[in-house]
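In response to reviewer comment 3 from the previous cycle, which asked for concrete evidence that the modeling workflow produces usable outputs, we include below a single protein chain processed end to end. The sequence was submitted unchanged, and the resulting structure tokens are shown without manual editing.
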Amino acid sequence: MTDCAVFDVDGTLVDSNYQHVLAWYRAFRAYDVVLPLWQIHRHLGMGGDQLVPSLAGEAVEAEHGDDLRDRWKKEFDGLIEEVAPTPGAIELLRAVKQKGVRLVLATSGKPDHVERFVDLVEARDVADAWTTSEDVENTKPAPDLLAVALGKVDATGAVTFGDATWDCIAARRLGLPAVTLRTGGFGADELRGAGAVEVYDTLEDIRSDLDRLLALAVPVRAPAS
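The workflow returned the following structure tokens.
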């Protein structure tokens, strides 16, 4: 059944979560919104369109949403040199490709960030396609990003890989299995509660179980209404 493996990028293939937390904290604080770092961390995996109102409320979104997202990008740009591949990412992507499976990176990152991360995990000649924030209006936990990613390669069957509850929710809305990694800071019970079919500590663990995980793929269907 396996036709396509869809991978989240931030927090899954690249170890960027804490840089994102700090960038969002600084962005909010620039507009006199001071949020606990742990609360910001718990919302990572959402796109900025979802994260701002979820964390700070609709009033802040209405007044400062776009400016906050611009400020977050400026802050993250200053930290991006510190981001490294998650251990095992390069080897895992190569292993997926060697299985003859189409490989798509599904992220709502800014195009310049995505291009950097694609190179960081040496995926430019391995991945069949990738997404950016320019591909969708609604990001995770909406399923739109996954649907676009699958559409880029005309996938007929798929399994997804991510690190956050939001990845699980988005996959569930498309009826797809979500394999998860604990690098996002979510507990195994939380991830399973959100719909994860498997939870792993490392990408090396996923690679060692890759044949079984790829066999979990199900037919791709349209998003649930």
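The longest strand covers residues 157-162. We consider this sufficient to address the reviewer's concern, and the full set will be provided in the supplementary archive.
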